[in-house]
Every structure is written in structure tokens, then in C-alpha cells.
Amino acid sequence: MITMRTVVEVKGISGKTVSDFMLNCTNEDYRNWWAGTHLAFHTTKRFPNDHGNLVYFDEYVGGRRLKFAGVVVKNIPGKEIVWQMKKLIKLPAWLFLQFEERDEGVAITHMIKAGFAGIGRLFDPFLRLYCTRRFEKDLEEHAHIEFTKLAEILS
Q1: What is the pTM for the complete model shown?
Q2: How many CB atoms lie within 10 A of CB 96?
């Protein structure tokens, strides 16, 4: 299992504010958040309590363009949202946003986990061809910039 984790301290907003924004984000909201880097993010299919929602992401992380669908597999408002990535089928990759309230704001943990279960773990080293150390560094930098920018538009 590959895990890429970044924690960003954000002042002036709450985890609930961020999770509500993410679950109701439109392409316009997403582009306004970080113009030129965030290209599209919208819900294509919605379910009660947002569990099962299908969303579409399109953004740049470093020099890499990421386009994928994600299914909300866990939603605890103000605490955690987990999307499982999907390209025709659900992939063994998850994006986590976890929120921990602090005195002046929220600590946001942005985490990607990718890997197979059981005997499929033999294929995990091949995931490193995509999830390189460079990508991990770019992702960390991206998370710090994007959540700082998000605080500016949500506070």
C-alpha cells in the first residue's frame, strides 16, 4: 500500500465549512479556488447523505494533469470525506480529507492511499511507476497551496 499524506494547518475556517464546500462544489467554485490549476470538479450523481455521490475531478498537480471520477465511500460531515477513484471501474486508490478542529481553524489531512488487497499486493510496486517520489512532493506542495487559498475564499 502506498500512502501519501500531508497535513495543512488552516486558520479561520472549520472542517464542516470545508467538507460542505467539497460536497457541493461546482466547476465555477473549483476554478475560482485556484484558477488555471483547478479545472473541473462537480457532482455527476448525488445520493442521500452524499454517500455514493459520483464526482468528477480535473486538475494539475505539478506538471501532471489528473482527471478522474471519484465515488464518496465515506462521509462524516466536518470530520472526513473519502473518495474511491474510478476509471470505468473502481480503482484501488482513495483520496481522504480528514479534518481536526483547532483553536484558530482546522488541520486538514490530505491523503492518497493506493494498493491492492490480498495476492494483488504483488502489483503494488508497479503503482510506484505512477506514484513517484516527485509526484508525492508535488502533491504535498499542491495541498499546502490549495488549502491556504481555500481559506481565503471561505472565510
Answers
A1: 0.92
A2: 16
